[in-house]
Design goal:
CATH superfamily of the largest domain: Phosphate transport system protein phou homolog 2, domain 2
Number of strands: 8
Structural class: alpha+beta
Radius of gyration: 25 Å
Largest sheet: 4 strands, mixed
CATH architecture of the largest domain: Up-down Bundle
CATH topology of the largest domain: Methane Monooxygenase Hydroxylase, Chain G, domain 1
Helix content: 55-70%
């Protein structure tokens, strides 16, 4: 919402504007309250109460329906702490199982009350203890392990390892949802953003970086799923190439996230050079063997690895400096 105010000149030395009444009441501002003004690098000014506001909409009620899982996720990402699922009739086993499955995928969410027609979900997550940088780094570390394990599972036809990768993807998703919830909370609550030392620009870039890494996790899980259903013999030479592609990605280490947070051009260039090397080797790989039916699954694995490499390089490039060096 865009609100316009006319600047007044008062007291012979000060400029003043009035605050929107609806916003002030929602933020708990009264006569005598103190607000903080913070100037940002783009020249804008952020206004927020000196003390953290108390939220009045931490509870939400959802009617049971075909999209209940998505609505639970939406309420979680929006920042609600209490989510109640209600039904006009008793929930059957399938409906209840869908609710419980959705809750299991959300960090800090627990079912605290359950009746035939109602399920109450409580989210116990301290926003100030959920450091976005730690979440992103943890997410990235998990994905790097998934890349290596998924390719090993595919080449060795190791179903146990493949299933482990799929399970880890669920953990990566939980971290992603937690990070998105924290970012959204910080956007609507400037005092939280201040305590997290996160500017609006950083919050936006964090969301994009987390999505890149989450997608890399999804691609690793897809490789693991190929491992679970592949029964064909694997070409030894092409298998070695796939192994080398995975090693090239894992050689990035913490580089993509380090480059993102540091905005260090040298670190960014180092990661993007890995992408260039991957693409060069990939061209040779695609020309090496005809795309026969027997090799189709290997090319699927290669395409997933290429996507992972692109995701991690894109994460690093989000750290490109937006102001010239002094």
């Amino acid at each position: 919402m865009e609100i316009r105010r006319t600047v007044q000149f008062t007291g012979g030395s000060s400029f003043s504007i009035t605050l929107p009444k609806e916003w002030a009441m929602r933020m708990g501002i009264r006569r005598g309250s103190t607000v903080v003004l913070k100037t940002l690098e783009d020249g804008s000014v952020v206004v927020y109460p000196e003390k953290e506001r108390t939220s009045e909409n931490h509870e939400v009620e959802i009617l049971l329906g075909p999209h209940v899982s998505q609505m639970i996720l939406g309420a979680y990402l929006y920042g609600y702490n209490t989510i109640r699922i209600k039904s006009a009739m008793s929930m059957d086993d399938t409906e209840l199982a869908n609710v419980k499955k959705a809750v299991r995928g959300l960090a800090g969410a627990e079912i605290v009350d359950e009746t035939p027609t109602r399920v109450e979900i409580q989210v116990v997550l301290d926003r100030e203890l959920v450091a976005p940088e730690k979440l992103l780094r943890r997410q990235h570390t998990l994905v790097l392990g998934m890349v290596e394990n998924s390719v090993d599972a595919y080449l060795r036809k190791n179903n146990s390892l493949a299933k482990l990768v799929v399970q880890r993807d669920e953990e990566v998703d939980r971290l992603y949802f937690t990070l998105v919830r924290t970012i959204r909370s910080a956007i609507v609550d400037p005092t939280l953003a201040k305590r997290l030392e996160a500017s609006p620009l950083l919050l936006m870039d964090l969301r994009v970086a987390a999505k890149f890494i989450e997608d890399a996790g999804d691609q690793s899980a897809e490789i693991a799923k190929e491992a679970l259903k592949n029964v064909r013999e694997i070409d030894e030479d092409l298998g070695k190439d796939l192994k080398q592609f995975a090693q090239l990605i894992t050689s990035m280490g913490t580089g993509p996230v380090d480059a993102f947070f540091s905005q260090d051009m040298e670190k960014i260039t180092k990661i993007t050079s890995v992408r260039t090397d991957f693409q060069r080797r990939g061209d040779a790989f695609l020309k090496k063997a005809p795309q026969t039916q027997a090799l189709a699954t290997m090319f699927k694995v290669y395409s997933h690895l290429a996507r992972i490499c692109e995701d991690l390089a894109d994460t690093a490039e989000l750290g490109l400096p937006f102001k010239p060096p002094s």
